[in-house]
Predict the structure.
Amino acid sequence: MSSNTDVQLIKNGKRLSGRKLEDLREIKIQPGVLDNADGSCYLEWGNNKVIAAVYGPKEAMPRHTQNPLKAVMNYKYNMAPFSVEDRKRPGPDRRSTEISKISGAALSKVVLLEKFPNMQIDVFVDVLQADAGTRCAALSAASVALADAGIPMTSLIACCAAGKIDNKVVVDLDKPEDNHGQADVPMAVIPRTEEIVLLQMDGHLTADEFKTAMRMAIDGSKKVNEIQIQALKEKYQGELNGD
Ligand code: CDP
């Protein structure tokens, strides 16, 4: 992020990728891709590729982590070493710890944790290919994987970022836009109520720009939510129909 865009990212009203300011990248979602997890989801979002796996609810271990009132939500975001241009050192770092913490907190707003005292729910999301917006891709996939695991939730969570490039507010920044843009605001929402369960901001926006970015991210999240629902319907209606 820089205070001024140092590369021209919008030409004739179109972004370098050919998208309009309010266009999302293409998103594909496939639930139930792993046999050995209770729930799973593979998601492609532009050039991002992520896979989410859910295990549980199961007895929380070690025992001192148990909460007699509700389940513990363990969310682990991990970037594969080969997911980025320069090989990433394997293992956790400050960035992945932060993303894991806030994403787990966002999911805890919708998962009915109090139904499972002394249990834990593990959500692992691995980024196989990264092109900016991976925390949104990861959380959107995790939400579908939780549904695929049959874990009771009040809603799916959908995620989308908005930001500022070339002094214009746009939705869903890709890697060049993230590198050379002026602001990036990832958000996760409960689509029906528009309740915001995750919001971060990198860079600077005026109050008016922030309002526009928030609206664009919420609208973007709702589009993501439609794709999530469609993907789950295709899998489970297909199974009900014996496909
Ligand atoms: O991916 P997201 O936008 O949620 O997070 P970010 O910290 O804003 O990272 C933006 C992008 O930078 C990632 O999606 C990766 O493409 C890239 N990145 C990288 O190349 N190496 C890292 N260690 C971290 C991020």
Observations:
- The mean pLDDT is 96.
- The CA atoms of residues 21 and 151 lie 36 Å apart.
- The radius of gyration is 18 Å.
